[in-house]
Amino acid sequence: MKFLYADTQDYVDPEYDFINDRNAPGRKRYWDDQYAHEMMTPAPYDGLLVSMSAVRPAIGVSNSKVRYSTAEQHRFLREGARKFLRLDEQTFKNTMVMGDCGAFAYVDHPTPAYTPGDVVDFYTDGGFTHGCSPDHIIFNCDSSNPPAESQPEDTIYRYNITLENAREFLRLTNEAGRTFEPLGAVQGWSPKSMAASAKSLEDMGYRYLAIGGLVPLKVEQIHEVLREIRKAIKAETNIHLLGFAKAEKIHEFTNYGITSFDSTSPLIRAFKDAKANYYLENSTNKLDYYTAIRIPQAIENSRLMQGIKRGTLNTEELQRSEAIALKTLRNYDKGLADYDTTINALTDYLRLTLSGSTMSSAELDKEVAKCIRLITPTLIDKPWKKCKCSICQSAGVETIIFRASNRNKRRGFHNLGVYHRHLQRTLENARNDLSI
After folding, report:
1. How many Cα neighbours within 13 Å face the side chain of 291?
2. What is the mean pLDDT of residues 180-189?
3. Which among 24, 73, 218, 359 could bridge 15 via Cys, Cβ 3.0 to 4.6 Å?
4. DSSP letters along 197-241, please?
5. C-alpha distance from residue 135 to each of 119, 183, 190, 197 (Å)
6. Is 288 labeled as catalytic in the residue annotation?
7. How far apart are CA 221 and CA 249, in angstroms?
8. What is the pLDDT of residues 352-365, one digit of tens each?
9. Cα 88 from Cα 184, distance rounded (Å)
10. What is the pLDDT of residue 82?
11. Which of 100, 273, 288, 333 is catalytic?
12. Across the strands, what pairs with 6?
């Protein structure tokens, strides 16, 4: 089972100055930056997935979370995905580069944003190794398996156009000489309708299926979908899970013959989760999660800047408290400050940053207490010192500080590496269990 990271233009400045919080002199975005697979050995994933909606936005499609500039679009198509993503070295010769349409970007449109011909051209021009047929997302998945007659007209249209597109996509791919491996996209309003779609795609000639619409589903619903699909198709037909947001539950899905899946979860949680920002695998092959220590930039954080403009926060006081918090945490990392001194410095800055909000005194006390409770295990365990990955070894305590993208994304890269190793060990354990 291969783990693909869905590209969201995540790269960092390898020469970033953490002490002065600034990029290397003359640094040029992208050109001087590095992807996770450039900073970490081995690479923290088995491949990258790139959405067409990010690289070549369709007219009227404006809600893609990732958007390449015009110059980046041209360079991507001119050089190919592998070179643009810096996967063209011999080290990455077996790394998958998969494409999909990015159907979430046009989910509110009545029709798909791209034709099968558009998509085949994009995958061919971009030099992808794998590419999914253009689909139209169906969000609701009813476990009671209602008949097609009970579904809205739009749902049936989305189901049918996804299959029609897949048929034409496969025909065009075969005509072009199969420069990439085609995946048939599966959509449906229920487990059984998705299984019927999968069977139809297999009958068309697909040997690799991409299961869509999984992002909003609960774990048990995904199990129901995969059980029905596996009953309907051949054992040797490959399955890819598109946007598998339940990546931490992957150990539950080792019995479905899944070939690959993509997820952004390990990286995104580094800076969007309220608690689980830093991954660490423990001795029982499970993941422990730690809360990152928030020390926002005093005069660059948008929320704090608003407080300064309103007059509820003082610039000099913020900067002074911020500097103390950073210095004390770094000293704690070096063994030059004790726990109480460190927690007090962090609490002082946290309380100050929150004082510019509209919450009452009691609410502020409650919020501070909650934050301190969350970071206490982080301070006590010092997980960044236990990790041997290149990110933690080079950035040290900076990895655990929740503060702008160069730290937050590094922590995300670390999470990808931990998760990748966790997946490999999970699969190894599953194979060992089968052999007993």
Report:
1. 15
2. 98
3. 24
4. HHHHHHHHT-SEEEE-S-TT--HHHHHHHHHHHHHHS-TTSEEEE
5. 11, 11, 16, 12
6. no
7. 13
8. 988 877 778 899 99
9. 26
10. 96
11. 100
12. 49
Per-residue pLDDT tens digits for 20-65: 999 999 999 999 999 999 999 999 999 999 999 999 888 766 555 6
Q: Which two tokens stand for residue 258?
A: 């899944």
The whole-number pLDDT of residue 240 equals 98
- Which residues neighbour 226 within 8 Å (Cβ) at sequence distance 6 or greater? 211, 239, 253, 256, 258
Q: What is the mean pLDDT of the chain?
A: 94
Among 262, 288, 365, 433, the active-site one is 262
Question: Is it the case that residue 269 has pLDDT exceeding 90?
Answer: yes
Question: Which pLDDT band holds residue 436 (cuts at 50, 70, 90)?
Answer: low
4, 96 Cβ separation under 8 angstroms: yes
Task: Name the β-bridge partners of 98.
Answer: 49, 130
CA distance 64 to 100: 13
177: which residues sit within 8 A by CB, 6+ positions away? Answer: none
Neighbours of 394 (CB within 10 A): 12
| 407 token code pair | 């730290």
**Amino acid residing at 267:** L
Whether 21 is catalytic: no
For residue 415, CA distances in Å to 248, 308, 317, 387, 418 come to: 11, 34, 34, 11, 5
pLDDT at 435: 66
Q: What angle do CA 95, 97, 98 make, to 5 degrees?
A: 135
Q: In the chain, what are the domains?
A: 46-263 (3.20.20.105), 288-414 (no CATH)
User: 89 and 60 in contact (C-beta within 8 Å)?
Assistant: no
Distance of alpha carbon 436 from alpha carbon 428, whole angstroms: 13
Kind and range of the H or E run holding 329: helix 315-334
Name residue 48's amino acid: L
Burial bucket for residue 309 (CB in 10 Å: 0-12, 13-18, 19+): exposed
Residue 417, pLDDT above cutoff 80: yes
- Over residues 93-103, the pLDDT tens digits come to 999 999 999 99
Note the pLDDT of residue 122: 96
